[in-house]
Every structure is written in C-alpha cells, then in structure tokens.
Amino acid sequence: MLSVAIVEDDREFARRIAEYLARYEKEKGTDIRVRYFQDGEDIVEEYAPEYDVLLMDIQMEFMSGVDAARRIREKDPEVLILFITNAAQFAIEGYEVRAFDYVLKPVTYETFCAKMDRALAHMRREKEEALLLQTASGAVKVPVRQILYAESQGHRMYVCTRQGTVETHMRMNDLEQQLLPHDFFRCHKGFLVNMAAVDRLEENDCLIGSRRIPVSRRKRQEFMDQLTRVL
Fold this sequence. Notes:
15 strands, alpha/beta
C-alpha cells in the first residue's frame, strides 16, 4: 500500500492529480491510498509520519509548500516530497528541505508517471538496504540509511539511528563488514560512523548532530579523504 498526500489549493488541479494516481494505480497494480489537503497549513496542523509521498504545491494561499515542508521535516525525515510549481526557479527552494523531485505545471500524465516510477524505485532500493539486528527482545530490521553511527562498549553494541538507539550483541568487525559498502568508516576502535551523516570534523572529533565522536590520529587523513568523496 502506497500512501500519498496531495497538498494543492487549486481544486481542479488536485482532482487531475487524483485521476492520474487512480490511472497509475490501475496500470501498475499498486494499491494507493490518497488524502487531500487544501493548504500547507492543513497538513502541518495534523501531520503524522504515515505518508510515503507528498505531492505538494509550492505556492499556496496561507502556507507555502516550502514552509510546510520545513515543519514536516521536523517530524518526518524520510517522506518523499515532490513539489508542484508553475515556475522552475521555485524548485531551487526545495533543496533546503531535501525535496526528492519537482513537477512543473501543466503536468502531463506521462511526466507524472515517470516521476512516480522514480519515487517508487527509490523507495524499493531504500527498503532493500537494511540490517537485521538481534536484540534482547528479538530481531529488529533497521534501514541502513537510518543509521548514524555505531558504538562498541565491551560486549555491547549500540547502533544509533535517526529513530533511536538499538542495543545488540553483534561484533564491531562483523557490523563493519556489512556497512563498508554504504560509506561507513571505522574512525576509532569503538566507533563506526555513517560518513553521509557527519556534519564536520573538529580537531580529533567528528560531529554528528550534537554528538562528538573521536577520530584516531592514524586514521584522520583517511577519514578526511573519504569525507571529501562522500560530500
């Protein structure tokens, strides 16, 4: 089931997008649940991270799509945002809220179909890349993209994700081998970091959000080289 929200103040255009979704659902054999919001204010007011895709107009009467997206990103870092706009220059604003793509009005079905195909392909890839971590209460599936870093403390491993921390008894060497293909780096004996999540390097520490993680002196140059490649 694909969950989609249409956020558009032009009712006629919103109806056309809903028709496109219905046609897409029939042609692709994909079940789609659609909900309509007339303005950015409306979706922000009661937003919950239950959507896969947001089809959102940029220019709306009360709250613009970009402003709404900023608020939504505070609650949902993963939803795919496809901005709808009358002018290509407005799409540039989407980068700051990590918009997945944009659709330029007027929208043909062929263009819409191509954008949705790309979004679904991205979602499938993201779902496939996951780790199965054994915890005291059972196995937990963690998407690789959600992992910020892992910390080893004695016989315990703490995998810090965007949603919280998972404690597992996995060995650091085993975890490192699984995550190396995804731009993770063993910056210190007890730490493995997602290079895409690193904000900056300060002296002998790298920063991921408010967390300072040590980078060993002998690995500092290799760390900087990989950080440059990821950026």
